[in-house]
Amino acid sequence: MSVVPMQKVRVVVHQSDVDAFLTTVQRGGAMEFSETTADQTVPPTMEFPHAQLFPRVQHAVGFLELYSPKMGLWTKLRKGTQSRLSESVILNKIQDTDVVTSVVEDLEKIQVELAEKTDRVRVLEEQHELLNMWSKLPMKLEYLHTATTTTYLVSTDAPKANLPEQIHTALTEAEILFGITTVSESQVAVTVSKETSIAQFTKLAESCDGVVHPTPDGTETAEVEFVKVSQLLAKAKGEVALVHDQAEHFAITHLKTLHIASEILTWERDRYTAVDSAVATQQTVVFDGWLNADKRAVIETELQKKNVAAVISEVELAEDEQPPVNIQNSPFIQPFEVVTRLYGMPGYKDLDPTVFLAGFFFLFFGLSLTDVGYGVFLMAVSAMILTLFQVAPVVRTFAKLLLFMGLSSALVGLLFGGYLGIDPESLPAALRAIQVFDPIGNPLPVFYLALGLGVFQVMVGMVLKIYSDARNGQLMNGILDQGPWLSMFFLAIAYLATVTGYLDILLPAQLINLMYVGVVVIVIASGRKGETILQKAQSAALSLYDSIGYFSDILSYSRLLALGLATTALAFAVNLIAELVSGSVPYLGPVLAVVVLIIGHLFTLAVNTLGAFIHSARLQFVEFFGKFIAGTGKEFKPLHRSEQYITVTDE
Amino acid sequence: MESLIGTGLVFAGAAIAAALGFSGSAIGMGHAGQAAAGVLGEKPQLFGKMLLMQALPGSQGIYGLVGAFLILNFSGVLGGDGSLAIDAALGLQYLMAGIPIGVAGYFSGMFQGIVAASGISMIAKDESNMGRAIVLSVMVETWAIFGVLISFILLISIAG
After folding, report:
1. Between A and B, how many residue pairs show a Cβ–Cβ distance under 8 A?
2. Residue A156 contacts by C-beta under 8 Å, 6 or more apart in sequence?
3. Is the ipTM of this complex over 0.85?
4. Could you say which of B52, B65, B128 has the minimum Cβ distance to residue A617?
5. Is A555 in Cβ contact with B148 (below 8 Å)?
6. Which is the most buried residue in A80, A250, A532, A629, by most CB within 10 A?
7. Angle, nearest 10°, between helix axes B59-75 and A559-584?
8. Which segments in chain A show pLDDT lower than 50?
């Protein structure tokens, strides 16, 4: 439940052991590498050994994924995409890439064959289209070009054009000898002497809104050639289909192998990318970076076990240098890291807020959704994801958070009488007995509850600030900054409790006098910060402005009431529409009502779950984190294995 | 008739609180959403952060909803026994109570959206700017909260 301690380290590794060292730290996700600088060193000469094979494998995967059998979402979720492999199997695969190379070569042959055959189909299709254009001309194609004449086919799209007459006039005016064969109203074949160039003829045809078509190859009439090409085209398409079948078969048998190879090669590529940031001597390679201090002992033991010649030494931090930040929590709290990570990492010297926000987030989400039905639905969905589906770790973590959120909604829903928008009056007496709040009929208690929770969370934030300052050796500053304000909050609570008759220790007037004292203490405590008298006065005056900040923070919690009300109102509206539909449409009414209920409640659930999540998170980020988190940290990004297709198992 | 005018004025107060708050939020979220969509085209991994930034100007709509409910509840329209009698003077007081929350919500929602859109650009350049971007945007919201406060004070000060 804290920010993970980091060490700035320099690791010197014998050149022969570089890959073994990097594999060890990569497996543990323990070290982030940074640019290394050292005297009398040169850039390392090591190169990624599979630099040629890796892109070929990636290309093969991309090609085969188009042909892989389509799985339904349910099957995909049930089976997952990962293969379970042990460390030794992974090692064998990286050392022996012959199988993968052979698969890739075979696939490349298929790709070449497919490209050739597809190109052949394209050429034949073009011929097919051209011959179709010429097919009505009753003239053998071999006579289109003779020793003295050339025949062109001219067509037009202009609807009212009398093409034969226009061409006739144009050629006569140009004093060109010609013969015209009318093919159709919009097509003519014009035979001209060889002396007439194609450019000259095209210009004349265009002046008549005509287009000159290229001459097809062949000897017989266009109609006969058209039949021949049709047969060739059908055959070529059949061959392409055959290659597609081969590719589909290949995908079934080899895609998994290629996915695994691609992932293992990606890991290796990442290791050699880390080498790029290192420097080398004659015998060693030197790496600088940040090491997860909690994992250092395990990494060193592992390196010893593998006889890896590597020495890890800690390096002093430069002035104002901040290590990257990672957070780690118990499995129970870990799902709430989703919320913290959404905001970004806290500063390295800050507290990890996850454990402190978990309870508040749980409660606020419940207050924002406030419905037993929706809560149970969310719990059922998350339980299904966690027990039935093979999903990525990130999705599992989110499903765990969803389980908590559903539980919270169900519990709060019981207290608020939220049951899918059903009127509490029509519920069994046992359920009505549990209900404590009536947010629609009497929203004020919920409003005060929301503000009360706000006051409590803001006060917790102040206490955490004192704790955080104490950890950084600034306990006195923490007490002087937060103490007077905390006292003011306690006095204000005591005053409210006294005037409402819940507390009877001091008189309200006495409490108000104590608050005046509190204001003076705040001014004096804040005044210590400046160096000159003017700065001290300025600091003291500004401290009172904080009251506005606290005030607006607390009022911001009123959103909890509004979000809860919105869920209830929307659910109620869905029920009302369903009731109207049921009564107004004969026979089909009840069926339509069920459809309205399902779609309406799913929509309400989706919209309100998103709103509840975002606004519960916002209350943490704006109103809570601001009290005790000073900076934003740079996220720790270690060399690690991204396990998309492989789950590494024990031997 | 007097009672009808009074009830109508209460409705007008609730409607002003809610509708202006909703409109301010809609405009603000529109500004922020437009900027977020531009960023997501280049950096889809920032979706979570963009969604949160877009949601920030949504608070004014929520405050408007709170205000409308409080007006309806304080006046007895909601949760009453149906024998409601609000005269025009009283109704006018409820109407006035809806104005601060509505107007402040409208303008602060609109301008918070503009600041959130600029914050989105900051985050696109460097993710670690998230905290700063939120703080800048939330500063504008302070005035909507003061609107809530004044409306609430007016409501509890109404002399029936």
Report:
1. 89
2. A163, A186, A208, A209, A210, A211
3. no
4. B52
5. yes
6. A629
7. 80
8. none
